[in-house]
Specification:
Transmembrane segments: 26-47, 59-88, 100-125, 137-155, 176-209, 229-253
GO biological process, one term: retrograde vesicle-mediated transport, Golgi to endoplasmic reticulum
Membrane topology: Multi-pass membrane protein
CATH architecture of the largest domain: Up-down Bundle
Helix content: 55-70%
Strand content: under 5%
Structural class: mainly alpha
Number of helices: 15
Biased composition (Polar residues): 326-350
Distance between the termini: 119 Å
Radius of gyration: 33 Å
Keywords: Membrane, Transmembrane, Transmembrane helix
CATH superfamily of the largest domain: Rhomboid-like
Order of helices and strands: HHHHHHHHHEEHHHEEHHH
CATH topology of the largest domain: Rhomboid-like fold
């Protein structure tokens, strides 16, 4: 069974490598090169983000771009390459090469900036200079976390694995990755910046996909209920996460980076109700809403068919009347016409 699983993974990876686009191949190639350069401590100091050297007078700002390609452990590099190839096989054909490359920089560069501010905050609380000069920030953890959000958007409610206790859905993957990273950090398997960057990668990617990404149909963001931040967490935590998500949205609105959310209802048709929500195409992101609306439309159509319209008054023949009644009506009209003609032909008497 293990041999079959390994064979399936290797076959899928081989297919993904040959079918992937240029952006995916370049990211993985730079990851492999970065791992080779990580054997030189001087290269790590130059390419990874060092918070103390980002600040004046050094301004090593190029490390915001190069830090994601550095990995110090071979198993980190292997995971990065496998995840990028397999996920990009699904994402790049939908988005295109430019959008995927744009998404990469949107996730990695702000993530390095947030991680730098976090290390500076740690230094302000502990006065430990290791956070400024001896703990580099590197790796592709934010991009892997961002991929889990994208797959959740594309395939919501997809069951990944079934166990006797529970069903693992795609919705649970981002939170599960954070929990697993926390456990690995507690046992000193990964550094603290891995957990920080993974968590920020999930938040940044969700914010971009939720409010800013422009789709091919001209819509912006994805305001569907199935992609709300609360759906990433179990129901007991959903109210707390909803407050956090609403706070992020209000901040973006006040900064004029987002427009207030407006729902448009089209009730012009009496047989159906159409709800237009800004966001991605409904086929990918809001299938449950479409099913509910379809069921509502079907019920209203059945109700309309059950009530038949009354016949028009000026119809001579009506399918609701028997043939005998129709003949009597026609003869009556003829008799009235004849009587009228006879009256007109009689001589008038004074």
């Amino acid at each position: 069974m293990k041999q079959t699983f390994v064979h399936d993974i290797s076959h899928q990876l081989q297919t993904a490598v040959f079918s992937s686009g240029l952006t995916t191949k370049l990211i993985c190639l730079f990851c492999i090169i970065g791992y080779g350069l990580s054997f030189s401590s001087q290269c790590v100091q130059i390419l990874a983000v060092i918070p103390g050297r980002i600040m004046p007078p050094n301004f090593w700002i190029w490390t915001f771009v190069t830090h994601s390609f550095i990995e110090l452990h071979i198993w980190h590099t292997i995971i990065d390459v496998i995840v990028v190839f397999l996920y990009s096989k699904m994402i790049e054909p939908l988005w295109g090469t430019k959008e995927l490359l744009k998404f990469y920089f949107i996730v990695t560069i702000p993530n390095a900036l947030f991680a730098t501010f976090t290390y500076i905050l740690f230094y302000g609380l502990t006065f430990n200079e290791e956070y400024l000069f001896e703990r580099p920030i590197y790796g592709l953890a934010p991009f892997i976390g961002a991929y889990s959000v994208v797959i959740k958007q594309i395939m919501p409610d997809t069951i990944i694995a079934t166990t006797p206790l529970f069903k693992l859905k795609q919705d649970h993957v981002p939170l599960l990755m954070v929990i697993l990273s926390t456990i690995l950090w507690l046992v000193h398997a990964v550094p603290i910046h891995f957990l920080i960057m993974l968590s920020f990668g999930i938040i940044i990617s969700w914010t971009y996909l939720r409010f800013f990404q422009i789709h091919q149909n001209g819509t912006k963001g994805d305001m569907s209920s199935s992609f709300s931040l609360a759906n990433f967490f179990p129901p007991p935590l959903s109210p707390i996460i909803s407050v956090l998500a609403n706070t992020i949205f209000e901040i973006l609105v006040k900064m004029k980076l987002c427009k207030p959310f407006i729902k448009k209802y089209n009730v012009a048709s009496s047989s159906s109700i159409t709800i237009n929500i800004p966001g991605a195409e409904a086929a990918d992101t809001d299938r449950r809403r479409q099913k509910a609306l379809k069921a509502l439309n079907d019920r209203m159509k059945v109700k309309d068919l059950s009530s038949e319209a009354w016949p028009e008054l000026d119809e001579v023949e009506s399918p609701l009347l028997p043939p005998t009644h129709q003949l009597e009506t026609a003869s009556t009209i003829i008799d009235m016409n004849n009587s009228t003609k006879e009256d007109l032909n009689q001589p008038q008497t004074s």
